[in-house]
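Possible regression after last week's pipeline update?

I re-ran a chain I had predicted before the update to compare outputs. Posting the input and the new output here so someone can diff against the archived version. Not blocking, just want to make sure nothing changed silently.
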Amino acid sequence: MIDKNRNATYNLATLEQDRFRLDGSFSFPDDTVANNGEVGFISSSLCDVNGVFSSPPTITIDFVGTHSSAGLTVTFDSINEEYATDFNASVYDAAGGVLLSQNVTGNTSSRCIIQQQIVGYKKVVITIQKWSAGNRRARVLEVDFGIVQSYTDSQLISMNLIEEMDMTSGQLPSPEFRFVVDNSSRAFNILNPTGFYKFLQQRQEVIPEMGVEVNGGRIEYVPLGKYLLWEWTSEEGSLTASFMARTNLDLMANYEYEQLTPSSKTLYQLAVQVFAICGITNYSIDPVLQNITTNSLAQKTDCRTLLQMIALAGMANIFVTRSNIIMLKRVSLGSPVDEVTFDNTYSEPKIELDKVVKQVDVNYWPDLNTSAVQSVSAAGVDLGDTLRLENNTLINTAAVAASVANWLLTQKSYRAKYTINWRGNPAQELADVIGIENTYVANMTAMIVKTSLTYQGYLSAQTEAKGAVN
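New output (post-update):
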């Protein structure tokens, strides 16, 4: 109940009167508890026909240390829109003293917010007295220590997601999520004493989801990622509030790294070290980086830049998945996993060709004061640009420099850039290989390097993908 997952995996049938509808939306619980997915709390006792529990179910959450938050948010049975109409939330300090005892009566929502600053608590007790329907078990999916606000079509003016990946790791763009909500209630106005503005702070979690209507009119939501609140503003004239959120990748720029004496390790080990410095656990590193050794030397720099240096030295790419995993991975142009056809595009995809690269020069550094250049030329190419990688001190040998140069030549050979304005498919992510329909030949194969999804009552998208010139 405290894993920030506010949706049940299945709508479980649990022997309650007039609850198990024969519409295919219910599932029988599995004897193996783990197979039931996200369940939350389900009480063993049933309330009476009026929803009153003779023996109120109680949930107690004990912490190892003390916490502070801007209130509590309790999520009940959101699938069936059932909830506790009457319940008590009591909060205790480390000595057992009561910091807050809030009796909630007449609640009419499956998500209930207790908005009050609570400082230094160690235990939270939720006691459910009355349920919204008779002969039911109490269900609590999540208890959040803070305020959780959800904005759906009726309050959401627009939202926009931009994701990008550089195939050569020459740049390190981070996903950005922007959204605008209705603020006619002035909840986000700075001077509103009962508003939310005073509770906003950087790095609060933002989770956008895209809903699809499935059988029985039920909406199934697919997450578009997990982001951290970065900036916000209230527009008085338009009565809206705008927000911008980013990912942990940006936070890495706040941490420094310096290594002036050699420390031999693999690029994989160095990447693990860098993530640990930043306190980041949501990452995935390609095992192939265990085969490349570096002396770890670097003048003082930030960890975001160092991660980019690791990616270049390891011939890998960096991007963030919708599950908020920072990927350090070698990608390849394989078979398409999806396609974009004329049925879903507003116009035929635009095709541009990047400049030809005829040669790549990579500096390698035996130590911080000594460097040499390893050059690799493209076969059969006489005219074109020369690409230089000069200051990556994690590249220490001519052999590694040559491998990096050949990899950069290969990545630069994907010169065809496709720009597609279309309806969009939120299931497509960075590094996915897609087929792109065109008028003249068979579908072109390309890798997604940028996605822009915009929702303002309807979904539209712009996708950029790169492939070889056929």
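Follow-up from reviewer: compared with the archived run. The CA atoms of residues 108 and 373 lie 70 Å apart. Marking as no regression found.
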